[in-house]
Design brief:
The structure is a homodimer of 185-residue chains. By secondary structure, chain A is mainly β. Helices cover 2% and strands 34% of the residues of chain A. Chain A is built from 1 helix and 12 strands, in the order E-H-E-E-E-E-E-E-E-E-E-E-E. In chain A, the strands form 2 sheets. Chain A has a 7-stranded mixed sheet with strand order 2-12-1-11-10-7-8, with no helix packed on it. A 5-stranded mixed sheet of chain A has the order 4-3-5-6-9, with no helix packed on it. Chain A is globular, with a radius of gyration of 16 Å. Chains A and B meet through strand 5 and strand 6 of A and strand 5 and strand 6 of B.
């Protein structure tokens, strides 16, 4: 049995692959608590939280400009579909979350396309879903990109993303508009 | 300041009023752990779970036919709207959740209308949202109905629900099709 199956049912698991980039990822260690290139199995009933707080988040960014909970993912099943899908919700009061070209403010949510670019502040996350069979569990996998996902034609090498091939972002040296702290629960 | 306001901002809170009925509610004490007629303030970032497990659910039904987590509510904000809305998701693998006339299977989700009837097994929950201003918090309030919400013209007295005035359900004596246990997380 491969590690990509549910141990109880041997069903293939849906995998959400997240390729991340931040201009300050070296040497600041923003992603140091994220395990790259290893799949993690999670129950599909649970909300998956991303943010600064290691107490409440599944995946943390070690960066004071990130909100305690920046965004969350919910698993669900579309009507008429047999596979898992993801919904994303912006949990930050002060920082917008951009899904492809759509801007989400606090508590806005959208269903994620199977392949999409998530941005907040200087963070870029390319999310790609690989369908499985199991509805009970799914997997996540993180990949660290050595360069911006917005400026390069050749990332990921197999699947160029022409719509992201223009620089719309501030330079790495710029000051982020993100909060330094939030009075959040 | 009334109890319906956010203590920090004095903003009015959105309230979700839930009128519940189950044919076996007396004398079985199915709803004994639910505080009726008192509003509870909750953070809008948190998922609200309903089910049998007191470890993971905000509101528990003391009934072995109920799943550990039967369904969940998520707060969100619609695009172009300034008020909170609710999304409901069926978290039970074996029992359908009916929202008005729509049947939700495991992990199906829908946005809740401002006023709607939720059913699963022999449970009936009339959910009515009262809009507030605060986005940080909301309130819940439970009311126990002495009789079925499906068969009575005069419940709630001020707001008859003609669309629910026909008996489509099994009698209180019938055996529920729900699971007696689930191997759920």
């Amino acid at each position: 049995m491969s590690s990509f199956e549910d141990a109880d049912t041997e069903e293939m698991l849906t995998c959400l692959q997240m390729t991340v980039y931040h201009p300050g990822q070296q040497p600041n260690g923003i992603f140091q608590s994220i395990g790259f290139h290893k799949r993690e199995k999670l129950p599909s009933r649970e909300e998956v939280k991303f943010g600064r707080s290691s107490k409440v988040c599944n995946y943390t960014f070690q960066d004071r400009q990130v909100s305690r909970v920046q965004f969350s993912l919910q698993l669900f099943k579309k009507f008429g579909s047999s596979v898992l899908s993801f919904e994303i919700k912006n949990m930050s009061k002060r920082t917008s979350l951009i899904v492809d070209n759509r801007t989400l403010d606090f508590l806005h949510k959208v269903d994620l396309p199977d392949r999409c670019m998530i941005r907040f502040g200087d963070y870029q996350i390319l999310m790609e879903k690989e369908d499985g069979v199991s509805l009970e569990f799914f997997e996540t996998e993180f990949i660290l990109s050595p360069r911006s996902l917005l400026q390069e034609n050749d990332w990921p090498p197999q699947n160029p993303i022409p719509e992201y091939c223009h620089s719309v972002w501030s330079s790495p040296q710029s000051t982020s508009p993100m909060e330094t702290d939030e009075n959040e629960l």
